[in-house]
Amino acid sequence: MSVLQLQAALLTHGFDPGPLDGALGPRTRAAIRAFQTAAGLQPDGVAGPLTLGALGLATDEPLWLAEARRLEGLTERPGKSSNPAILDWAERLDLNYASDDVPWCGLFVGHCIAAALPDEPLPQGLLSARTWMKFGRVSEPGLGAVLVFWRGSRAGWRGHVGFCVGADVEAFHVLGGNQGDRVCVARLSKGRLLGARWPLSGGEPPSRAVAFTGLAGTPLSRNEA
C-alpha cells in the first residue's frame, strides 16, 4: 500500500488530502485525523491498521516504508552542491546539517519515520547510524524494521541504518539512503547486523524475519558511506 493509495482512499471517502502526490504531508495527515474522528477512531493522524481497515485498505507494509519506497532513486549531487530534498529533511527535523557529503543514512530513516509517525520520538544524534539502536523497541528483522549495522569493525563507531525489505540466506535486503550515494536496495551481510528496532507508535512489531530471495546472488554492499 502506497501513500498515493491512502490519499485516493481518503478522497473517495470525502476527505481532501490535498494534491495526490504520494507525500505524507500536513494536509494528508489532517485528512487522516478528520476521517478518524468521523469513524470514531483515535484522531492521531497515523494511518495504522484500524484506520486502513476502515478505509478499505489492507497492507503488510507500514507507511514509513511506503515513504522510503517513494524516494527510491534519489541521489546526492556531486561536488559542492547538495540535493535540496536531503537538506529539507534535515530542516524539517531541526538538524544542523550543511551538506549531503555528510553521511545521511540516519537522516533518511529519520525523515521516513517522522513523515509517517509525526509524534514518534526519534533518537538524539540520529545522524549517527548506531544511535538508532536506542530507537523504539526491539524487533525481529521483519518487513519495515529499522536495521542497524556496523561498518569497519563491530567494536568501532561507524555504522549504517536502513529499512528491512527482504532477506536471503546470506544477507538482509535493505532500503536505505547513502547506499552508493543514493536511495536504493542493497544486500548487507547478516553478520554485520547489530539489531532491529520498531517504532513505539508503529503497532505490533513483526514476529518473524522476512524471507525473500529476489536479490540473492548480487554483490554484498561493503561500505555504505
TrEMBL record:
Residues 3-55 form the Peptidoglycan binding-like domain. InterPro entries: CHP02594, Peptidoglycan-bd-like, PGBD-like_sf, PGBDSf. Coiled coil: none annotated. This is TIGR02594 family protein. It comes from Peiella sedimenti.
